[in-house]
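Is this the right way to post structure tokens for a design question? Let me know if I should format differently. Anyway, here goes:
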């Protein structure tokens, strides 16, 4: 009987042992399959979550109800108030914001939606910003409020933010984020080798792409809210050209060392002025009604 020497046995073991850090073909194939299943489920969940928006007259990919949007918004209010230094203590200023805000709601399609609109003037006098939560909670900072010159400009800011709510942009972003996270998770599962750290680069690229998609949708939402803001302003009796004045104020505020937080998600004000003109001409081709508040 032939007996293999110890040196030969060592040589065989070295040739047959798997190389460190390289996954077997079988494990890689399993990860690919799991990744494809995850991606398929994420896409299916997204495309099957369609709801009709009566204000826009179109279907949207949204996977939560209006009641859930309201609950999410109400839950976030205290934290946002705290982050912006509390509420403005001047009751006259807050009352004026309420007056304009509810004029926009009560006289337009916004009042026919289930959202519980509330308007908050924040005490922050350094951050130029305005934003809305999905449930109908609308915020404007004192830094922006103090720069506005007319009642119509305040109506323009609030109308834009109300537009975000009734267009359900927040709910859309939630659905998009869930889709993005699902696809990113699928890429990670399919490509990341736990024994090979360099493969994490693929996952990082996927996350960066995800961020670009989110930003793209956000900017489109902003332009749509400008369009809705024009419509809401006219229905409530305000001259929509005042919204262009808001853009000029924001552009001037951006000339300093500290850029307004408004610019982090909103398109360039100069470009938006052109879009506002386009919206006015499209919605009112025969001219604006008379007697509008500037």
């Amino acid at each position: 009987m032939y007996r293999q020497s110890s040196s030969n046995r060592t040589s065989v073991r070295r040739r047959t042992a798997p190389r460190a850090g390289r996954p077997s073909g079988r494990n890689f194939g399993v990860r690919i399959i799991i990744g494809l299943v995850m991606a398929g489920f994420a896409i299916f969940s997204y495309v099957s979550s369609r709801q009709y928006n009566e204000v826009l007259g179109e279907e949207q990919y949204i996977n939560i109800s209006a009641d859930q949007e309201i609950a999410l918004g109400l839950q976030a209010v205290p934290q946002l108030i705290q982050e912006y230094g509390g509420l403005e203590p001047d009751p006259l200023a807050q009352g004026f914001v309420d007056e304009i805000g509810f004029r926009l709601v009560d006289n337009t399609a916004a009042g026919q939606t289930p959202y519980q609109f509330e308007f908050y003037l924040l005490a922050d006098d350094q951050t130029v910003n305005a934003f809305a939560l999905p449930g109908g909670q609308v915020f404007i900072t004192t830094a922006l409020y103090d720069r506005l010159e007319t009642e119509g400009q305040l109506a323009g800011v609030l109308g834009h933010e109300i537009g975000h709510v009734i267009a359900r942009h927040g709910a859309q972003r939630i659905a998009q984020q869930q889709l993005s996270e699902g696809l990113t998770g699928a890429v990670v599962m399919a490509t990341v080798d736990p024994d090979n750290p360099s493969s994490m680069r693929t996952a990082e690229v996927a996350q960066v792409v995800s961020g670009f998609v989110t930003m793209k949708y956000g900017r489109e939402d902003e332009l749509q809210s400008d369009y809705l803001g024009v419509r809401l302003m006219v229905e409530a009796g305000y001259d929509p050209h005042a919204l262009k004045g808001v853009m000029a104020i924001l552009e001037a505020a951006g000339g300093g060392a500290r850029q307004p937080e408004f610019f982090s998600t909103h398109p360039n004000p100069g470009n938006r002025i052109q879009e506002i003109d386009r919206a006015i001409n499209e919605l009112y081709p025969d001219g604006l009604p008379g007697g509008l508040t500037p």
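Format looks fine. Someone answered above. Worth noting: The CA atoms of residues 214 and 239 lie 32 Å apart. Confidence is low (pLDDT under 50) at residues 1-7, 9-14, 182-192, 204-217.
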